[in-house]
Amino acid sequence: MEDVLRPVLVLGGSVAVTVVIGWIVDVILRRTDARHPETPLWGLLRRCRVPLQVVLCAALVRSTYDQAHIARDHTQGIGQTLTIILIGATAWLLIRISAAIVESAYSKYATGTRDAARVRRVRTQVTLIQRVVTAIVCVVGIALMLLTFPAMQTVGASMLASAGLLGIVAGIAAQSTLGNLFAGLQIAFGDMVRIGDTVVVDGEWGTVEEITLTFLTVKTWDERRITMPVSYFTSKPFENWSRGGPQMTGTVFFQLDHAAPVGLMRERLREIVQECTAWDGRDWSLLVTDTTPTTMEVRALVTARDADAVWAVRCEVRERMVAWLREEHPYALPRIVTATVQETYGADPEDGEDKKDGGEDGPGGPGSAVLR
């Protein structure tokens, strides 16, 4: 009877103590979070309840299972398994705690800072820092798990002896990976590109959605994702529309006839931008920027608060201006005047009088057309 009750008491007691301690810690964190709503750390630490309970349960069972006389023939294997579980749960707990601290610091900074560019820069930095911490904790945890195996301890000496050679070989083999790793750190602390920035890469316009230590994801305007190595942004030129402030200046070009009413178009543009909600009110203009033998180029310039807004303003100006020209001033649209072959290369002697008199096939008749 004692052989049955002792394992039950040991295991049941460990689980009960774990549940009680986890509940007490959760209550303390919940009350502290209610008293200090300005600090989100206490609420975020509540996510650590499960890994904390696993650590406590594994530690208690690891320290008391010898007294429970559980599977005496497999004592060493059970002890090693509990040790591995304890190491893994501890690494899990450390990752959760570090994530809570980093996220709390970022949330507090974002709440008290009005500069969107700085907020994106800090977000990029803390994200990469969290990934580095997670990678270090995982590597250390796996190393400690491997050291619990006696065979690994024996092999360790020979591995350390050849560490220099292995390091050189690994460095050569992982040259591109290490290059991306250092490029990721350079992006994080060099403020070259940040999460949320609007960029143009290889002719593709989009927003930086994710930055890791090795790759960067750009979300395009049509919701595609372009994944690129971070080393690209440290070795090749790219456009960052969010750097130096989110305000943007956009242009709309019109190819019009020389008779187009530029003055009236300027007044119409003023009315359009004043009615457009995406226009930030900073500036607008309309100028003739070029001419050709058949058309002239008119440029409309508008401003907006960010890249998305300037795109909306440009589209609205283009659509409404063309509609206004088509309805009110159709002669301003580009035209191509064509003539008949006889008029171009000489009239037919037999019916030349009809051509000259503007007859049925004369100018304006079926033999000529005006294309718009």
Briefly, what is this?
The chain is an alpha+beta fold. The protein has helices at 2-35, 41-45, 49-68, 75-112, 116-147, 150-161, 163-173, 175-190, 232-235, 262-275, 307-328, 341-345, 352-356; strands at residues 198-201, 204-211, 215-220, 225-229, 239-240, 248-256, 279-291, 296-304, 336-338, 369-371. The longest helix has 38 residues, at 75-112.
What share of the residues lie within helices?
55-70%
**Helix/strand order:** HHHHHHHHEEEEHEEHEEHEHHE
Q: Would you identify the regions where 5 or more consecutive residues have pLDDT less than 50?
A: 156-163, 168-175, 343-372
Return the structural class. alpha+beta
The average pLDDT value, as a whole number, equals 76
* Sheet with most strands: 5 strands, antiparallel
Question: Mind sketching the topology for me?
Answer:
Blueprint: H1 2-35, H2 41-45, H3 49-68, H4 75-112, H5 116-147, H6 150-161, H7 163-173, H8 175-190, E1 198-201, E2 204-211, E3 215-220, E4 225-229, H9 232-235, E5 239-240, E6 248-256, H10 262-275, E7 279-291, E8 296-304, H11 307-328, E9 336-338, H12 341-345, H13 352-356, E10 369-371
Antiparallel strand pairs: 1-2, 1-5, 2-3, 3-4, 6-8, 7-8, 9-10
Helix pairs in contact: 1-3, 3-4, 4-5, 5-8, 10-11
